[in-house]
């Protein structure tokens, strides 16, 4: 997915941004992915970007105070953080959509109307433009 990960991770010093953004359909799925990526992430910092038990102001404060390499969350929360200038996507290099994972009802993220709308809104808001400029690579997992 990202052959230059070690270099990108080491050179990333910007606050309010992440190098890789992973979008999942739910907070529980986000937590599952965070746990399963321990071998990949190495010594980088991962930030949870979902609404379950975490207020948006807390996440904005964390983004302002620290440097994070990977953000994993739901499209609704990521979109809200971008809209409120809590998360800047200009230094984001990779965006991964958790495309094929299915919930208990066998629905993928694009089968759930609310998640589909939030994801499309997020893509239209800024991601498609960044992809066209060549600064962000979009991947489906």
Automatic annotation (TrEMBL):
Pfam families: CMS1. Gene3D superfamilies: P-loop containing nucleotide triphosphate hydrolases. One of its GO terms (cellular component) is nucleus. This is CMS1 protein.
